[in-house]
Here is the input.
Amino acid sequence: MPLVSRKGILAIAAVIDVAINARNRPVSAKALAARHRLPPRHLEPVLQALVREGILRGVRGPRGGYEIAREHRRISADDILRAANAVDDASDPPLPNSTLLNDVVRPALAEAERTLAAVLARISVEDMVKRAESK
Here is the structure.
């Protein structure tokens, strides 16, 4: 069972891709989607959430696209996942309101999420770019 959602994984991959490839000009959503073998419509909501959170900057125009909005070392994997999780997934039905869910399951998972978030906060875009460039 993955702890990180599909859109979270795509968001991290997109940010690292932009960090690596936007050195001379912005990276288009179409190029990002092609490199990750996705339809652009799958990435656009995530990219827009990353722009709203100040992780990416959108550049308009025919040579527009996305670039990193702040220093690589100041963006963590946790920042990216929080932004991605802000994207509404209308296909997910709401969870039921039950005592077991509210009193046992949610608190246990919240504790696990806090632990994971603390670890992810220590992983920066800079760290991941270095790892990608060493491969």
Remarks:
- The longest strand covers residues 56-59.
- The two ends are 27 Å apart (CA to CA).
